[in-house]
Design a protein that fits this description.
The protein is of the alpha/beta class. The chain has a single domain, classed as Rossmann fold (3-Layer(aba) Sandwich). Helices cover 38% and strands 24% of the residues. Strands 6-7-8-3-9-10 form a six-stranded mixed β-sheet, sandwiched between helices. A four-stranded antiparallel β-sheet has the order 2-1-4-5. The site of magnesium ion has 4 residues, from helix 1.
Amino acid sequence: MSQLVIENLEVAVKGQAILKGVNLAVNEGETVALLGPNGHGKSTLLAAIMGNPAYSVTGGSIKFDGKDILQMTPDLRSKAGLFLAMQYPSEIAGLNSADFLKAAMNAHREKPMSLFEFYNSLQNAYKDMGIPFEMSKRNLNEGFSGGEKKRNEMLQMRLLSPRIAMLDEIDSGLDVDAMQIVAKAIEKEQRRGAGFLVVSHYARLYGIIKPTRAAVLINGRVVVEGGPDIIAKIDTQGYEWIKEELGIEIEKEEGKPMNTVSIGVCATKARVDDGKK
Ligand SMILES: Nc1ncnc2c1ncn2[C@@H]1O[C@H](COP(=O)(O)OP(=O)(O)O)[C@@H](O)[C@H]1O
Ligand SMILES: [Mg+2]
């Protein structure tokens, strides 16, 4: 069984300490929900696990199957079985989607796939994700809508069959139908035995994919870990109870352009219903 183990992880971005000693483990076959107010380091954690060079690991360790992955480049981490569906997938001008997917899939194999085999799996994957096959001819994410970008990330997950997949707000910006498609794709990989680390603010996705555990990241640390009941508690009460029960002062994010939802509303039921009606 594969296991991703993060110990005392410290990560800095542009010289600023963001993660301040994260401890977390994800086993193959289990689904862990990662919650926390915006700007507290969830995406930073996933980016550091995948090896994004903008995120410098200044302390601690990340091991996958007992191997120190901090020594591995992102492509080797991918080949080892890790996958990240990004919160903000990049648009890559000049890179044809089908070419990109073929290169990624072949990089995971000893011998390149036959064109027939490739197109067969490509067509099935596009169909499963409810994306018109025509889109495989377009440049990667270029001009895609928010929802199309998210579904395109899931398409990559399907084709690469990771052992542990990290999904960063895969459900934001999706309408109800697209959310069902994404949830189905996750369930399929769960049945195959993959492990998941899923960041979402919405109980709706978690209600379908049923995490086995939940962890809450606040001020750059995992401060609460437990059963899925934590998700329902945050969904109805937000994060105030953590402040009260653990005496943790939740740092507010200030002037952070990338994050548009503020703490206090990001995980309340009102906002979930608002966004989906
Ligand atoms: N590429 C980056 N450049 C500058 N600051 C960043 C970058 N990525 C993250 N940060 C900062 O790190 C902090 C944590 O952000 P992030 O990990 O995106 O939080 P979350 O995903 O929990 O909302 C924020 O203060 C954010 O502005
Ligand atoms: Mg984020």
